[in-house]
Structure formats: C-alpha cells, structure tokens
Amino acid sequence: MKGKVISLILAAMMTTALVGGCGTKTDGVTAEEGGNTNEIEKGEVQSETKPAAGSDEAAGNETAEDETLTVWCWDPTFNIYAMQEAEKLYQQEHPNFKLDIQENVYTDIETKLITAAEAGDYSTLPDIFLMQDYSFQKMVTNYPDLFTDLTASGIDFTNFSSGKLADSTVDGKNYGVPFDNGATIMAIRSDIVEEAGFTAEDFKDITWSKLIELGKTVKEKTGLPMLTSSGGAELILQMLQSTGATLVSDGEVYLSGNEALVEAIEVYKELVDTGVMVEYTDWDQYIASMNNGSAAGVVQGCWIMSSIQAAEDQSGKWAIVNMPALDGIEGATNYANCGGSSWAISSNCKNPELAYDFINATFGGSVELYDTLLPNAGVITSYLPAAESSVYQEASEFYGGQKVYADIVDFAGKVPKLDCGAYYSDIRSAITDAATNAVQNDADIVTEIQNAQETVEFNIGG
After folding, report:
1. Which of 207, 233, 404, 254 lies closest to 319, judged by CA?
2. Which pairs count as long-range contacts for 198-203, CB under 8 Å and 24+ apart, including other chains?
3. Residue 54, SS3?
4. Residue of 297, 318, 282, 346 whose CA lies nearest to 404
5. Cβ(316)–Cβ(400) under 8 Å?
6. Residue 213: helix, strand or coil by DSSP?
7. Which of 143, 155, 326, 368 could form a disulfide with 364 if both were Cys (CB 3.0 to 4.6 A apart)?
8. DSSP code at position 395
9. What is the distance between the alpha carbons of residues 320 and 208, in angstroms, rounded to a whole number?
C-alpha cells in the first residue's frame, strides 16, 4: 500500500501543473545564509553552528542562543520576496532575528519531504517550508510526522478564508498558515461585452445558465467566445467547490452519484458545444487569448490577473466579478478557490516557539506586511482583515477604477470547502478524463463519472 502511495505521489509531482503565485525557479540557490550568536527572546535551543575563529564564543565567552530559522520556498519575486519582507518586519521588534531562506523548486521540496519521512530521519528538514495547497491533505495523511500541529500555536485561524484554510486542515487540526489567495474571479473585457449591449455588472452574481445565455449573445454580436479555458478539470473543480461539494465521504471516494459533479460536467460540455467557451491545451496560447482579445473573459484563480495585466494597452478595459453559480444545486454559491500555497512548520523545527511567534506576527497577523506585498509582488492575501486597509481599498486604473483587491479578499471569505481528502491528484486526473471524453467524444457523462470512480478506487486501493 505505501509503495503504491509513494509512486502515485511522485507521479503527481511530475505531472501536476503549478499555478498562481507558485512558479518554479532554479533549485539550490540560497537567498540568505548564516546565523548569529545573539541572545534570543523566545525558545531554549542553542545554536549548533561552529563559532568562527576570534568570535566571543570561540574565545570562551558565554554561549548565546540562535535566533535563525531556516526556510524552504521557491520563486524569488513572489514567495522568497514575501519571506524577506516578513523577516524585515519581524526584525523591527527582534533585531537579532534572521532567516536562512533556501530556494527549492516545489517538486524538490516534496521529494525531500518524502525521502525524510521514508527514512525516518527528519534532521534534513528546515524549520519552515512552503507547500502547495493541493498537496497538504495527502502529505499530512501519509506522512503526519513531517509536520507540527499549529492548532494551539496562538495563530488566529479565524482571520483566514475558511475555504482556503480547509486545504491545510486535517481532522480538525491546522497544519498550515495561508500565504496567498487563489479566490476564483471572472475577469471580463468591458469593451467587448459593451459591443454586445452589456456591462460587466450584468455578469455579477449570475448562474452558469445565465452566463451561457449572455455568452451566446456576445458571440453573435462580436464573433468572440465569452470565455477562454485551459481545459482539464480545473474549472470543473472550481464549480464543485462553489457548491461545497464533497468528493470524499467517510474516507470513501464519492464521484458516482454526485449530483454536483454531473451538473458541472454538463455545464462545461455546454460551454464548449455552444462556442461560449474555447479550450486551449497549450498554456501560452491560453494566456495569449486574453492578451490579444481572442475572448471576452476568463474564470480562473485571481493569480491570473498578473497575466492579464501584461497587456498594458488594455488598461481600463477589464473588470472583475464573481464566478457563476451552478443551477439547481443546493448550497451553490458564486465563490471558489484555485491554487495557492501555505506555510508549514516542520517537525524538525529547533525552536517552534520562535517559529510560531514569527509566523503569527507576519503572515498570520500583519496587515502591514500584506500592504507591502500587494503593490510590490502582486501577492493578494486571504487574510481577511487586510481587505479594510487603505492599500486594498485603492481603486485600480487597469480595472476601470474598481477596488478589485478588496473585492477579491471578500470573495475569498465566502468560499465553501471542497473535500478531496488525500486524493486530490487522483480525483483531478480522473475527472479530467471523464470531462475530455464527454466533450470530445460525446460520451455519456454518468458512465464516464462511474469510470472515474472506479479508476480512483483502483489507484488508491491496496
């Protein structure tokens, strides 16, 4: 059983696309190195770094405690930059504090975690590491000894979006602190829909059936599809999350007979069949379809905004609204989440009290930090109090004067949970196959979902 789980995890790591704020960079670069021997305010652990010749410690003076935490993350312009800014903020009250930030591509982080867990040797782990949200459930379930339970750490988790927080919560315990925001948005080219006689407001708080109705008119009047899509199960999973659907119930996979899943695939197929949405299997073509005006909009995690804004000539021509809700499904909303990551504290953390305090004072409780990260790195937070800050309340010229960042944090606070248990990668892959066969081969949707159920059960079986 464990051998199959390991092979599945490693296979998923090689094939799963990273999204929103989760770009991968070159492995092995150390952003900051070294420790210090100054007195620490919190924690009891002594520094194990060998003192330099000529230092006070080498000369026989009293040994000081270490205030350095080691961090694994990726992307110098996003995640690493955010950690560096958090370090600066914490140093205002703790001048002896230091981070040793080590850049690793995300697949390498997972590989190192699994290797340590399989060997039963956690000494190679850093104090803090960043993990993709989709990986949390499987990693905590299969390798719980990698993580420190943060539930009683003093961090106020009620200040984060419950939908985002659910990704790193296992059996009611918190194992991660949300970093960024993957709240789903519908980005709309205001000028294109205006040609069809609509405004962006006409697309707000609507259902998918209404979106298809409006989209048909947009296509008729402008010749353009209403939406562009990257294909696969991504949009379908967002539809499912918007309903609060359960895909795993009491440890059992729940695809077959799932009313919300049937509806989601039916809607997806209708979007493609009617030409209201066009699919691109190539990511560059997908992004280009937004930048060159080949589509009137997109439904995606809010991280897609950085790609949209690359077309500077379109400033003032875009607007942001919430996503459509699935028709006829009890509890359906206009809110979902796609992508993102959260900070974890490893079981090898030498000074957990210091790590708790650092995270709590920065990513877990500082509007000031998020106010810095938004304009300088494009990091949109899921920390709900940030929505009221002056930075998040600023109007965006690119989006026609809309206060888009406050709106997105508001969206994030309304996202329902999506329970995939530890089987996210397996479920996503099986749903992709089901949707592809339904759309491209006109296969029966109920039969394809039953096939998906059997595939997932086989993959996670003994």
Report:
1. 404
2. 200/319, 200/321, 201/321, 203/297, 203/321
3. coil
4. 318
5. yes
6. helix
7. 155
8. P
9. 16
Report how far residue 412's alpha carbon sits from residue 384's, in angstroms, rounded to the nearest whole number.
Answer: 8
Residue 18 has pLDDT above 60, yes or no: no
pLDDT (tens digit per residue) in 371-414: 999 999 989 999 999 999 999 999 999 999 999 999 999 999 99
Write down all domains in the chain, each with its CATH number in brackets.
2-181+339-395 (3.40.190.10), 184-336+423-460 (3.40.190.10)
Rounded to whole angstroms, how far apart are CA atoms 144 and 123?
A: 15
- C-alpha count within 13 angstroms, C-beta hemisphere, residue 49: 21
**Of the candidates 307, 313, 312, which has an alpha carbon nearest to the alpha carbon of residue 284?**
307
For the residues of 396-454, what is the DSSP string, one character each? BTTTTTB-HHHHHHHHHTTPPP-B-TT-HHHHHHHHHHHHHHHHHH---HHHHHHHHHH
**Contact (CB, 8 A) for 180 and 379:** yes
Query: What are the phi and psi torsion angles at 112 (to 5°)?
Result: -65, -40
Sequence-distant (6+) residues with CB within 8 A of 82 are 179, 363, 369, 373, 377, 379
Query: pLDDT (tens digit, 9 = 90+) per residue, 281-295?
Result: 899 999 999 999 999
Using left for φ > 0, alpha for ψ between -120 and 50, and beta otherwise, residue 432 falls in: alpha
- What is the rounded end-to-end Cα distance, in angstroms, of the chain? 5
